[in-house]
Structures
1.
Amino acid sequence: MKELFLVGVGGVFGAIARYLVGGWIQHFFPTFPMGTMLVNFVGSFFLSFIMYLSEYGGIISRDVRLFLTVGLLGAFTTMSTFEYESFRMLEGHDYIHLTVNVLGNVIGTIFAVFLGKEMAILLRR
């Protein structure tokens, strides 16, 4: 029961953060889903950082890791929104934005995972 509570509370905060951060960023990019891409990048970085820091350093307890990764970051990242926005670009034959969006999200978030891992390793040295 405690795990469900931690995930649920983290999810509430993650969803609110996603709405605020994604919306704020999107305000500056009205024709491209930059808010979604940035949220995915930031979420991937922090998920990786927390998981690798936990693995390499044992600094983060299981409960805190569950709250942050499954709850907060699980609600913060936006894979379903990314897929919907990409499909809308495909429907609209906006192939340039579609390509930038897909490559930016996929390659950018893999790079964010790498950065999170490296940051965790550096912090533990």
Note: The chain has one domain: 2-124.
2.
Amino acid sequence: MDILLITVSVLLIIIGILGSIVPILPGPPIVFCGLLLVHFSSNQPFTIELLIIFGVLAILSAIIDNVLPVYATKKFNGSNKGVWGSAIGLIIGLFFFPPFGIIIGPMLGAFIGEIIDGKSTNNAFRPAFGSFIGFLSSIFLRFALSIVMAYYFVVEVFMK
């Protein structure tokens, strides 16, 4: 039974790390599920405190993942139309132009949203760039947290 739990945990962690880069999958929560699953093995490699910390961080990362691109767009003087354009651009880019659409879609969407809002081309580029920076920051945070959790998994399960 332990081998099955560890195998499924490894798969969840791999999917979670990939999900840290692909916006449609919630990377850190999936990695956390892998940690939680292996905790039910006979070894119980993690303390309850560590699981609580990682669980809270996984939830926070999911919240920040949705807030950070919007915050960055607004911080770079974006309007509501720019924020909506960024979200719509992400969805369109994800499904119609993968993998580059994930990066270009939100930026182009924010730019178009700002143009629709009546801003000049020069003034519309700044919030679009903010959307891009927010998106990259969000990916970096998700990926970093997922790698840290995967590191703890490898150390506790395979090196002790």
Note: Helices lie at 2-21, 27-39, 48-75, 80-96, 101-116, 121-158.
3.
Amino acid sequence: MLLFKRIFVLSLALILSITPARAALGPESIPAAFDELLKVSSLSNPAMIIIDGTTGQVIYEKNIYSQRKPASVMKVLAAAVTLDYLDPQSVFNTTVSISPENKTIIIRGSLDPWISSDHNAARKMNRASLPYMGFNTLSAVKKANSGSLKNYKVIYSNLYSQDVANLKAFWLKRGFKPTFKAVSDDETLLAQGDLIASENSPTVAEILKWMMLWSDNLLSERLARLSARAAGYSLDIKGVETIFRALLTQLEIDDSKLVVVDASGLSKKNRITARLMGEFLYKIRKDEKYALLYDSLPISGVSGTLQNRFTTTAPAAVGLVRAKTGTLNGTATLAGYVESTDREYIFVALADDIALGNRALDKARAAIDRVLGRIAAPNIPAEISPAP
């Protein structure tokens, strides 16, 4: 009996000693614990901020005013301006028509950011198909030109140069070598002939979701530039920088340490601070206009660029983190939201001085996962017992 009691006491002590270590850290325990967790050499003195999503209180900070490379975390700004200036339910339309008497093909685009060069992929994802437009055009020219593909020209408006190059290459392989001329939208509208093809993209909302989920650099650039044009600025990085800064100013966030070289985060010359991005994520979380941005973020161990993260590094955090990843050689970043029992935290982690190579990146990402794993825990809503 005495032996049984001793075993019971020892077991209870062991349970009590283990449980706190596995439990999610409370706000008061985060600073000391994170100071230790972030000392690992694989992160090489990162910048990090943790903000209470309810109160806006900064729970933890490290190098938060230091300018760091954001990598693809920059796409959060691109997504936000997209929701500011483009209608989420709008689509991009591209039409192709023929004027046999003028031996002219007229392509009237709308700067569709997602025309596909793969017909099967286009149909699967409801994207505009370049092969469909290309083959239909070949058939129409042959029919109108006695079976010949010679002596035709193409005038076009609102197509990206890459799409024009893809179309030229597609036709060249099939013996069609028309001359190309870029014209205004009004000119293609007035010149329209017999319709050959009309292709639509998915909605802006669907394109944005894909861009955020899989960190598509091209879509990020194009959506941000289209947003700049819709805001009345130039369709280039200058226009993008203008609307990025305008958004931050509107949210009363200091943009003095922001450096914008592209809208995707691909350049190593881009710069943000953990403070700037943390404040930004905190403020847009409270605005219904940006709900789609939150919903489009990859989920830890579940979807997108986070589907293979946390599953082994911090299993307790699977499904509890929504965040934008960022990766460059020598840089691993992550920014978003983490569920923690009775609250949600906003976090930004910028490790941009790590060793080069994939092995160092994997170690840095794993270290960031483990840090977040210390505060992640399922939300437990308060329950009120019925009155007796």
Note: The CA atoms of residues 7 and 13 lie 10 Å apart.
4.
Amino acid sequence: MARVAVAMSGGVDSSTAAALLREDGHEVIGLTLQLWDYTAENLASGRGRCCSPADIADARIVSDRLDMPHYVFDHSATFEDHIVEPFVQGYLAGTTPSPCIRCNRLVKFDMLWKLARALDAEFLATGHYARLENGAARPQLSKGHDHSKDQSYFLFDVPVERFENVIFPLGALAKDEVRAAARRLDVPVADKPESYELCFIPDGDKDGFVEGRLPTDRRHGGPVRHLDGTLLGHHGGLHRFTVGQRRGLGLTSAEPLFVVALEPETGTLIVGPAEALAAEMLEARACNWVSIEAPTAPLRAAARIRHRHHEVGALITPLGDDRVLVEFDEPQRAVAPGQGVAFYDGELLLGGGWIEGT
């Protein structure tokens, strides 16, 4: 049996992961990171949001019930610098950030692993719905058995060496099986609702959050133009929009219009018909390869451009400097710069990169 540190958010998934490891006879330590400073006015809306004070309290209650040590570490300053500020700057730059992917790389599998090692843990476990095999030459990371809960997409940016000492106890389970296990093991949060909002935006108002962090001279809108150059109106700020968006444009048109592009240099929002959203290819930067070595020749794989997006066959061609060209077998709708693209071979996550443009 091993000494295992479990990343505990206070939710049913991480709590059940800890309980299952305890049942298997491992020595388990609970680790919780305080990543956001919830002020008094946010406490009421904090429950149900990952990493809220209520969640931290739940993690401690679960640890007490499981008779295991539990440690809370304040890394809110690091989270601010590496996750929150890049999130704001990403929207200002006309992209659509994905902070959860960055958080997995920089927080959950970096800071937490360092803390685990400082406590002499041999492994770090999380409640991710993903499967991991470490018997091969390099770790093999696959989709979670429950495809409706699969979180492998969010792990494409984690360096492969981090997975050498990671355990995913829930990878082979469906969500209802996890809750059933939690009830069987008397986990206090077995029926706790899931959290869906970003942990640092407890009220879900992304636009208001970004605006509140803008200097006065950056709080302005700009023109809305059709692809043909026609001026159609004005918008209240590019951070309010993402490629593919239809609602909230404030436009009257005989045909449905969608956000096609954002031009931060001029503050212009470009809109057009649905067919203008179809992209035959994209370029991705800062690619990270998990289950295979970085390819040196074109590679066939299935590409997923968003967490809930259906994968499509594609040819991935290395361009050098950790960049690739992705050519889709079928045009893909609403490819948004700033999001991630993950590459799969069946169930196996090969790797992924950050979408730069189409």
Note: The first helix runs from residue 12 to 23.
